[in-house]
Amino acid sequence: MNIEEKIKDALCSRASGWSRHSPKRVYFSVRKEDILETAKLLFKELGMRFSIASATDTPQGIEILYHFSFDKTGEIFSIRVLLEDKKSPKIDSIAPLFPAAEWIEREMWELLGIEFSGHPNLKHLLLVDDWPAGKYPLRHER
Amino acid sequence: MNIKQKALTKSLFAYHAATSPCNNCDIEILDLFTPRHDVERFGITLVGSVRHADVLVVTGVPNYKTKEKLKTLYEQAAKPCFVIAVGNCACGRIMFRDSYNSPCPVDEIVPVDAYIPGCPPKPEAMIAGIVKLIEKLKKAEKK
């Protein structure tokens, strides 16, 4: 059983929208409630490495991609989460699972205004500490 | 002018202030000190503390955070301290002009004595820039 089948097996219906963009890049979507569980599965049980997360402001909502790397085969699995509520996007923090996610979540919080509940230290990283609250530079004004 | 300035032109000690660059200019600056260019022949060397520096070599576009740091660095430097802006970013912000995190160019924070444009400038261009700065200082000396 390859790693993709293992994920499909463990997550069943919770993971959707599977697509393989190239031989080593796999994308799938989960709901925002399931992100903690999915990250735990990939990181703790399947032994993947957390590379980085990235967020974009799209017309449908704010989209976060969590990129996990499986070093045995060189595949990268990207979990896609869509936060539809643009006024106050909120998601569980995965920083309690592994501290590597701490800084990128701080960055996503200050640049796009995503609230990470359960984050141990949510404060400014790249911007100055007295940056005006509620002003998110990477949000699109539509 | 005075003996201090005269001695200064013989050996410039440079302090490298990186105000959020992309590291390309920094690598080219380090190239100056490798055997191929070796500006230490002319008495120019990098120092680890701004207190020992005669020249502040600034790279990158300052952001709100590094702007304050650059100001502090210049205040801490023993005067006279000259500032060289290396690279297009430090010379005039170019494409980062309208960025949300770019308050002002380098020459609005500290007085810049020499501009070395390029993205990144070649080590030869930097040597030319330093020579021009030394000439400028020598001319000021004569007056």
CATH class of chain B, anyone? Alpha Beta
Q: Tell me, what's the shape of chain B?
A: globular
Main CATH class of the domain at 3-85 in chain A: Alpha Beta
Strand order of the biggest β-sheet of chain A? 1-2-5-4-3
Give a quick account of the main beta sheet of chain A: strands, pairing sense, barrel closure: 5 strands, mixed
CATH topology of the domain at 3-85 in chain A: Beta Polymerase, domain 2
CATH fold-level label of chain B: Rossmann fold
Largest sheet of chain B: 5 strands, parallel
End-to-end distance of chain A: 45 Å
Total count of helical runs of at least 4 residues of chain B: 5
Total count of helical runs of at least 4 residues of chain A = 3
How do the helices and strands follow one another from N- to C-terminus of chain A?
HEEHEEEEHE
Radius of gyration of chain B, CA atoms, in whole angstroms = 15 Å
Descriptive terms for the model:
heterodimer; A: 142 residues; alpha/beta; Beta Polymerase, domain 2; five-stranded mixed β-sheet; two-stranded parallel ribbon; 23% helix; B: 143 residues; Rossmann fold; 5 helices; globular
Give a verbal description of the structure.
The complex is a heterodimer of chains A (142) and B (143). Chain A is of the alpha/beta class and 142 residues long. Chain A has a domain of 83 residues: NADH:ubiquinone oxidoreductase Nqo5 subunit (Beta Polymerase, domain 2, 2-Layer Sandwich). In chain A, 23% of the residues lie in helices and 33% in strands. Chain A has 3 helices and 7 strands, in the order αββαββββαβ. Chain A has a 5-stranded mixed sheet, with helices on one face. The N and C termini of chain A lie far apart (45 Å). Chain B has a 5-stranded parallel sheet with strand order 2-1-3-4-5, sandwiched between helices. Chain B is built from 5 helices and 5 strands; from the N terminus they run αβαββαβαβα. Chain B has one domain: Rossmann fold, CATH 3.40.50. Chain B is 38% helix and 15% strand. Chain B starts with a helix and ends with a helix. In chain B, β1, α2 and β2 form a beta-alpha-beta unit. With 143 residues, chain B is of the alpha/beta class.
